[in-house]
Amino acid sequence: MQVEVVKSKIHRVKVTGADLHYIGSITIDESLLEAANMIEGEKVAIVNINNGERFETYVIPGPKNSGEITLNGPAARKVQKGDIIIVIAYGIMDFEEAKSFKPAIIFPNEETNQLS
């Protein structure tokens, strides 16, 4: 049996931009992607703490150590600059493997989006 589990999570980062006229996705500081074991093009769920919105998009890397968290395209309508969001990536694995799997979960500074 296969199950879907949390693979990676960036817990509570501040939205730095919302660009409605971009082609779509979420731009995330590359240093956060590396720390959370996420890759370019990976499907992610976005949870907006401020308004309760929950939606999916895909990742594109932003400049390393920039703190950038920008929602692009239609997803830009789901956030406001300054909102706090959680970014979650899921993986599918064997049930027995999932029992011992440990996800990469990071807790950046919510004001700067930098790792401590």
TrEMBL record:
Return one GO MF term. Answer: aspartate 1-decarboxylase activity
Keywords carried by this UniProt record: Autocatalytic cleavage, Cytoplasm, Decarboxylase, Lyase, Pantothenate biosynthesis, Pyruvate, Schiff base, Zymogen
- What is the protein name stated in its UniProt record? Aspartate 1-decarboxylase
Q: State its role.
A: Catalyzes the pyruvoyl-dependent decarboxylation of aspartate to produce beta-alanine.
Query: Pyruvic acid (Ser) occurs at which residues?
Result: 25
Q: How cofactor binds (record note)?
A: Binds 1 pyruvoyl group covalently per subunit.
> Post-translational modification, briefly?
Is synthesized initially as an inactive proenzyme, which is activated by self-cleavage at a specific serine bond to produce a beta-subunit with a hydroxyl group at its C-terminus and an alpha-subunit with a pyruvoyl group at its N-terminus.
Give the similarity note: Belongs to the PanD family.
Q: Which domain of life is it from?
A: Bacteria
Could you mention a single GO BP entry for this protein?
alanine biosynthetic process
Q: Which reaction(s) does its UniProt entry say it catalyses?
A: L-aspartate + H(+) = beta-alanine + CO2
EC nos: 4.1.1.11
- Keyword Lyase in annotation: yes
Name of the top EC class for this enzyme: lyase
Principal location listed in the UniProt entry: cytoplasm
Q: In which pathway does it act?
A: Cofactor biosynthesis; (R)-pantothenate biosynthesis; beta-alanine from L-aspartate: step 1/1
Residues the record marks as active site: 25 (schiff-base intermediate with substrate), 58 (proton donor)
Q: How does it assemble?
A: Heterooctamer of four alpha and four beta subunits.
| Keyword Zinc-finger assigned | no
Q: Which cofactor does it need?
A: pyruvate
Q: Which organism is it from?
A: Myroides indicus
Q: Where does substrate bind?
A: 57, 73-75
**Compartments reported by the entry:** Cytoplasm
Q: Which GO terms describe its cellular component?
A: cytosol
